Amino acid sequence: MILEMKVPSPGESITEVEIAEWLVSDGDYVEKDQAIAEVDSDKATLELPAEESGIITLKAEVGDAVAVGAVVCLIDTSASKPEGAAKSEEKPAEKKPEVKAVAEQKTEAKPEKTSYASGSASPAAKKILAEKDLDASSIKGTGKDGRITKEDAVKAVPSMGTPTGGSRGESRTKLSMLRRKVAERLVAAKNETAMLTTFNEVDMSAIFALRNQYKEDFKDKHNVGLGFMSFFTKAVIRALQMYPSVNSMIDGKEMISYDFCDISIAVSGPKGLMVPVIRNAENLTFRGVESEVKRLAIRAREGEITVDEMTGGTFTITNGGVFGSMLSTPIINPPQSAILGMHNIVERPIARDGAIAIAPIMYVALSYDHRIIDGKESVGFLVAVKEALESPEELLMDNNVKKALEL
């Protein structure tokens, strides 16, 4: 019996996928539920498992865009499983002559070096070319019988590259469907929103002190680190509740506002930027936020994140600081209306109580859609985030650190 394997729907609104990689070869025997391919959608990279055991016949090439529901391979379920490793032992023998043939082709195809000049260079031209470290064979002479004149040598310039003969190679790689979709969304965000960015700075001293005091106890009890993301997520939730228009988005002629906070966390994955969502983050404790951030980040980096885990989100936090960014203007993640950019933490001189002090400072940026978020609200939102981060014990922990950290 021949089973037709069709592309399953990875999620709502996705109509096609791209074959990113075949994990098996044409003619291989595959087991049921074995991963046979990786497919890219415009939201994530997913594995395609075999629906039955049997001999597989591939019907699509790597890089092909395949519609959802289209046949990508056939599985002969009546075929018996080969014994031992006989099948795998045949492959190297088949490949060896192929490699040799390619090598022979390359040797035969190597062209002889030709000269543009049919004549030689004059003594004066030779001297100038030697000073310029140029090969006479690359110069087209204008003298009699193609002779390279002094004027030809004076005018001669190196071809693209350097006189030292450095490499000038290049390569082309097709962008994955995920990367192309990200590019489209970023351009759309710039073109279709009235995006502005406001900045502020945060003195991270209070958070440093809390983490230094409680991070070991927190990790021992909850098996997860007490990072900066839980403080920022909590601060953002508080600010969103104070300024609900920042937790809104435009839908045609209407503005949709949400009474929940689904926080998208930008993560750099092997296939590009991914933005998994922490659902109802307003209901999570510090431990809950840190556990969810860790879980989603691992799944994204290992390519196991699902479309559902990246769909939605009412506000995004991105941390360029992990790469050393001092300051940036993050791009809104549509259809959301705002995004908070975190950056690196650097010790800087600040004025504190009328004196100069050295403190760990982070610059923060809020990019927002000015169509529905006014300057007063955007600045107020970022100030609220700053206040919460600089006074976390009072504004984020109700003056009870151990209870907030569940210690």
From TrEMBL:
Binds 1 lipoyl cofactor covalently. Residues 120-157 form the Peripheral subunit-binding (PSBD) domain. It catalyses: N(6)-[(R)-dihydrolipoyl]-L-lysyl-[protein] + succinyl-CoA = N(6)-[(R)-S(8)-succinyldihydrolipoyl]-L-lysyl-[protein] + CoA. One of its GO terms (cellular component) is oxoglutarate dehydrogenase complex. Keywords: Acyltransferase, Lipoyl, Transferase, Tricarboxylic acid cycle. One of its GO terms (molecular function) is dihydrolipoyllysine-residue succinyltransferase activity. E2 component of the 2-oxoglutarate dehydrogenase (OGDH) complex which catalyzes the second step in the conversion of 2-oxoglutarate to succinyl-CoA and CO(2). This is Dihydrolipoyllysine-residue succinyltransferase component of 2-oxoglutarate dehydrogenase complex. The lineage of its organism: Bacteria, Pseudomonadati, Bacteroidota, Flavobacteriia, Flavobacteriales.
